[in-house]
Fold these 2 entries.
Entry 1:
Amino acid sequence: MKTISKILNKALKEGRKYLLEPEAKTVCMEYEIPVTNFKLAKEEAEAVKFAEDIGFPVVLKIVSPDIIHKSDVGGVIVGLKTEKEVRDAYKKILGNVKKHKTNAKIVGVLVQEMAPASTEVIVGAMKDPQFGPALMFGLGGVFVEVLKDVTFRVAPITEDEAREMITEVKAYPLLKGYRSMPPADIETIVQILLNTSRLVMEHQEIKELDLNPIMVYEKGAKTVDARIILE
Ligand code: ADP
Ligand code: MG
């Protein structure tokens, strides 16, 4: 809990309403929400070392308070398999960001494990002025963006409600496995929903939270991107 307060206070002191990805993922970890391994590199050589520690392939991402949608500015490069690819991607990302926003403040470059592709789900939370925190669940990509196949509950939710959320989206059958996709670990999704519910109930400073996407495997899951917006 102290870790989270420290992160939130630091953001507020710096006048930020968004947590940086490593901060948001650290908050998630405090509530046992599974995230990809990550390390924040401050220079190229460090990025190489972290990539070797984490294990190839890795993903590199810009960490900047001035950049919220990282891939929009060429700030995310996935599938890096060698030291050279990491070095090139490091330079490329900083170049891309500079081109897009000359004076963007750069905190560093996040090196993270590459989560294997799988069924993607999204878990969100947002504060309703009348009902307080509410939770959202859906399958990722076109299901949420095009079909708006999502479901909501007012927090806190019970385990039964978490299960209902999962089974009531139209895309639910996909979680039971299709074509080459193995069945998804529903129990892990239930736990993520319950832990997210606890997180937003216990930290009313959080205005919005977005775990998008979460890769769900036959066993376990990994949050690939986490966004948290403060009041
Ligand atoms: P943005 O700020 O643009 O939303 P993301 O962190 O979501 O940046 O990265 C963009 C996309 O890159 C993700 O939606 C996902 O498809 C892919 N990606 C990012 N990180 C990883 C990772 N660790 N493993 C696998 N894919 C990733
Ligand atoms: Mg994203």
Entry 2:
Amino acid sequence: MSNTIKRRGFMLVLSSPSGAGKTAIARRILETEENMSLSVSVTTRPPRPGEINGKDYFFVDMPAFEGMVQRNEFLEHAKFCNNCYGTPREPVRKALEEGKDILFDIEWQGTQQIAENAREDLVSIFILPPSMAELERRLFSRAQDSEEVVHQRMATAAAEMSHWNEYDYVIVNIDFEESVKNVRSIIQAERLKRQRQSGLAGFVNGMRSQTA
Ligand code: 5GP
């Protein structure tokens, strides 16, 4: 019998320095997890080869981004490597209410903002690379960014990594399949949290009334 008890969705945040494997893990989770969708961010960064507007990001210019900030349309937003990134608020609110989980690929500043505003709906995971050498190798082998951008991202990585201890869970991404398995275990456990299962009281009361 499947679990039909009503529950509230949660925000699953994955953060890591660029190149630690977060995007690949996120992609696999989204392919295989029912009831989990991606929060598509807005960014002022130019699209990388192969990225699709509306799927990977909503690509906008700076005035459009600032307009969204002023209209309070972001759940969180932050600057990263000279580009702005933000999470549209409305799709998240709707999904949580409908009991759907949402995956976020965002950095630590955004995670902090969500923790301040909606701690009980947040589940955060930090992904660490096995070593700096491996991180650099992955960034270069990705071949999507120029050498200058890779160096800039390597420099940012050390600072980003210092935020590992602000997260609920930490995974060292040595083996991709193992990391995916670990993220799945976290998802399963978080779905069973008592506080999220808003239909539990009614369910239990219903059973108890049958025996009265
Ligand atoms: P990239 O340019 O490599 O796609 O993303 C750069 C960084 O920005 C990554 O760490 C990514 O997780 C983060 N990021 C992407 N979207 C958002 C967002 O909406 N908010 C915040 N705070 N960070 C984001």
